[in-house]
Amino acid sequence: xxxxxxxxxxxxxxxxxxxxLKQSWDKKIISLCDKINKLENYYTTSSCSGRIVLLKDSEExxxxxxxxxxxxEISAGEIKETLNKIKGNDLIYFKQEPVILxxxxxxxxxxxxxxxxxxxxxxxxxxxxxxxxxxxxELNATEKLExxxxxxxxxxxxxxxxxxxxxxxxNLKLGWGKIERLEDNLKKLS
Length: 190
Known about the structure:
- The mean pLDDT is 90.
- The chain is an alpha+beta fold.
- It has a 4-stranded antiparallel β-sheet, sandwiched between helices. Strands 3-2-4-8 form a 4-stranded antiparallel β-sheet, covered by helices on one side.
- It has helices spanning 5-15, 27-38, 76-84, 108-120, 158-185; strands at 42-48, 51-56, 66-70, 92-97, 100-105, 125-130, 135-140, 145-150.
- The chain has one domain: tRNA wybutosine-synthesizing-like (SSo0622-like fold), CATH 3.30.1960.10.
């Protein structure tokens, strides 16, 4: 008897431990992921509810580049306090990254259904990653900020710091709204 490869991969994926730096699910996206994982033809492979990051500039990807990561709203004071503790000459970037979600689908037809649902829920940048083994939909929100903020000293004024934190928090909330809308619309996949 031949086993269903999609269900086999889904079962194995859902048994895996979290390999992210955070080592836990983002609270704002866990309910959406749970609902997707309960659907027969879908399972999540990775997710982020959006985040604000202070990051050392580097051509390489390394875990030690992250100075601080927040998955919630922040204050200008939190950013300033963290930046004031930095020693060295590294160029530091402020990044507010949008919601991202990867969902394995049983076939291309189901992938298209999920992408259509996501677009109708406000997710603007979406695509299919297909191989001979699986079909994965990548869902992305588009709200983001990124710029240098520190080298030996804070490179922006306090007023500008307050403005970017306000915009970053606003962008996070917009992303969380998209998570909620997609979760509400999932019933259309059942």
